[in-house]
Amino acid sequence: MNSARCLIVGPSWVGDMIMAQSLYRRLREQHPGIIIDVLAPAWSGGILARMPEVRRVIASPFAHGRFDWTGRHALARRLCAEKYDLAIVLPNSWKSALTPYFAGVAQRRGYLGEMRYGLLNDIRRLDKGAMPRLVQRYAALATQPGAGSAQTEAPSPCLQVNADSRRRILAKLELALDHPVLILCPGAEYGPAKRWPEAHYAELARAKRAEGWQIWLLGSEKDRVVTEAINRHSGNVCIDLAGRTTLEQVVDLMACARAVVSNDSGLMHVAAAVDVPVIALYGSSDPAYTPPLSDKAHIARLGLECSPCFQRECPLGHRNCLEHLPVTQVLTLLPAL
Q: Higher pLDDT residue, 283 or 90?
């Protein structure tokens, strides 16, 4: 297996893609010579480029949720030339297992998911009690059939920071590191039920700016409405970088931070994977399932009876799990100057 060629069908969310590195690291621990390619959405290329375990990224042409039987056949024909020995399918959907099946990969491994009998020939039964964390479930797929109980302690993701790229993006954005940096990540693509209120972020920004910190707001173009509102409410004390960086550049910028405060989002996992202190804000989601994987991370949550609900919108219409999470609780977790 040391010289095996492995195709990973990657997940579709930023945070899940980062947690999948635990699988790649486990595979490399067990088989140092293994070649790992990842079939994943094009946006993930920048993140995967910072994972030394990955040889190359194969950009998936399929939009999230799109079936495209013909397109999957065509992609599989191209992949046949790679002669993969093993495919590991991380999403649970039926369609995500089609390409390795069509490509004739000899061993096709994954959890049963959507009754994928035949599409997968190395089907694992998920024991949620033994592996409550998603990262454990990913890493367990590194084990060979019949290897016994899966190892549940997964190696943490660790993204590489590029010093030259960091210098370039700091210069391009005219950013200086003469004051400690607090990065705020107020977005959450999954939905508003995971977002700490804009007013709370603004209050936090004002408090830390008064202590001499500089405040950077990070996010995608979709987060611009939120970051602009936070900056406005804070009295424009923030530097709004939302939509001005690539995901790969975010990796380098995160490494500049003294601390990061983030909703449960992909950027939270980026911060944890570059080993900076992270305050992770949880409301509708569960830190027992997808926590920030770092010993420098702290969880801020209320743990209301209705939480976690895992809904995109609060089904009760109030979002008290985050609305009532006070700024003072977050401030106490931040490192002092």
A: 90
Distances (CA, A) of 71 to 68, 78, 95, 99: 5, 11, 12, 9
Under the banding of pLDDT at 50, 70 and 90, the label for residue 191 is confident
Please give the Cα distance from 56 to 39 (Å, whole number): 9
Residue 155 lies in a domain: no
On the question of pLDDT at 298 being above 90, the answer is yes
Task: Kindly state whether residues 316 and 169 are assigned to the same domain.
Answer: yes
Q: Are 193 and 309 in contact (CB under 8 A)?
A: yes
Residue of 181, 4, 178 lying closest to 83 (CA atoms): 4
Domain containing 35: what range? 5-140
Domain boundary among 140, 175, 204: 140
Amino acid symbol at 282 = Y
Within a domain: 93: yes
d(CA 153, CA 135): 9
**DSSP codes joined into one string, 156-204:** PP-PPP-HHHHHHHHHHTT---SS-EEEEE---TT-GGG---HHHHHHH
**What mean pLDDT do residues 140-163 have?**
82
Sheet of strand 259-263: strand arrangement: 238-240, 214-217, 181-185, 259-263, 278-282, 297-301
pLDDT average, residue stretch 240-256? 97
Nearest to 91 by CA among 54, 116, 74, 61: 116
Asked whether the beta carbons of 8 and 36 are under 8 A apart, the reply is yes
In eight-state DSSP terms, residue 327 is H
Q: What is the mean pLDDT of residues 84-104?
A: 96
Interior angle at CA 92, CA 88 and CA 97, nearest 5: 50
Q: Which two tokens stand for residue 9?
A: 């069908």
- Dihedral angle computed from the Cα positions of residues 6, 76, 10 and 42, in that order, rounded to the nearest 10 degrees: 120
Question: What angle is formed at CA 207 by the lines to CA 205 and CA 208, rounded to 5 degrees?
Answer: 70
**Whole-number pLDDT of residue 237:** 98
Please give the angle made by the CA atoms of 172, 208 and 322, to the nearest 5 degrees: 100
- C-alpha–C-alpha distance, residues 256 and 260, integer Å: 10
Over range 237-252, report the average pLDDT: 97
